[in-house]
Amino acid sequence: AAAPGFLLAALVLFTLKEPRAYVQARVRQDAQSATFTETLRYLRAKPAYWKLGCAAGVRAFIAYGHGPFLASFFYRVHGEEVARVGAALGMEPQTFVGVIMALTVGLLGMLGIWVGGRIADRAARTDISAYGTISAWATIVLVPVTIWGLLTGNLILAIALQGVSYFVQAFWAGPVYASAQSMVPPHMRAKSSAIMIFMINLGGLLVGALVVGALSDLLHFGGGLDTAEALRWSLIITVAASIVAAPLVWSARRSIAREIES
Fold first, then answer.
1. Is residue 260 classed as helix, strand or coil in its secondary structure?
2. How far apart are CA 238 and CA 243, in angstroms?
3. Residue 28 burial (CB < 10 Å; 0-12/13-18/19+)?
4. What is the per-residue DSSP string for 3-59?
5. Average of per-residue pLDDT across 58-78
6. Less crowded by CB within 10 Å, the N or C end of the chain?
7. Rounded Cα gap, residues 157 and 74, in angstroms
8. Structure confidence at residue 26 (pLDDT)
């Protein structure tokens, strides 16, 4: 019984080794932290940073805009097949759509973040501009794959293509956040990341779902499309608009190498 207690005490002592030096180091770090204004002023000379941030905002616009409507898309466009396949698997339609969302948005989106970061890190060993190249190519692949998934009448193919879409769509996260922290000195990294996150959420959380929903209503009430086709074309139009992210990232890659410093 004494052994676990001894091990726990040893772990605590190891963790708290030289606490005074640790606290002093944190105090020095806080004292050296840059202000928000200083960080902004420093980033003015980093065009690649702003291009990557704007491109990531466009990509977040698609992710956050499409996410809330993906379940509705499957209900409206593939409703009968969802019910049939769900029944064959012993699931209610809502449960089956929940599984679809978990696999595409959740699992494959999470895997895409990790794989995109790994690919970018490996490629950057020989060419640091790969942090921009990987994200640009991912955007180019994303658009046709997503549109194909939205247009197909086959439920299984639609699920598979949406999975590929969310997998590839997440490739930007690792390279963009790594670049945001690498383009500034260590004491500016936190605020640099915060500014980048603000830019991303400005395009994604603030207007993404609002634009998709408003466009769907416009196509339905103003364009005469039924609710299924209105939502389908709202998603297609908004994902096609994300193609502007590719030239932004491709342009950013030209100066990434000289802007990265830590």
1. coil
2. 10
3. exposed
4. HHHHHHHHHHHHHTSSHHHHHHHHHHHHHHPPPHHHHHHHHTT-HHHHHHHHHHHHH
5. 87
6. N
7. 12
8. 43
Token couple for 6: 């001894």
Amino acid at 119: I
**Cβ contacts of residue 157 below 8 Å, gap of 6+?**
149
Is pLDDT at 162 greater than 60 in this prediction? yes
H/E segment holding residue 130: helix 130-151
129: three-class secondary structure by DSSP: coil
- With both helix axes pointing from N to C terminus, report the angle between 47-77 and 130-151 in degrees, rounded to the nearest 10: 20
When comparing pLDDT for 203 and 74, which is higher?
Answer: 74
Q: Return all residues near 72 (Cβ < 8 A) that are at least 6 apart.
A: 231
Rounded to whole angstroms, the Cα distance separating 125 from 258 reads 15
Q: How far apart are CA 232 and CA 237, in angstroms?
A: 9
Q: Which tokens is 24 given?
A: 């002093």
Q: What is the pLDDT of residue 184?
A: 86
136-157 pLDDT, tens per residue?
Answer: 888 888 889 999 999 998 999 9
Dist. CA 246–CA 56, nearest whole Å: 10
pTM above 0.90, yes or no: no
Q: CA 69, CA 162: separation in Å to the nearest integer?
A: 13
Average pLDDT, the chain: 81
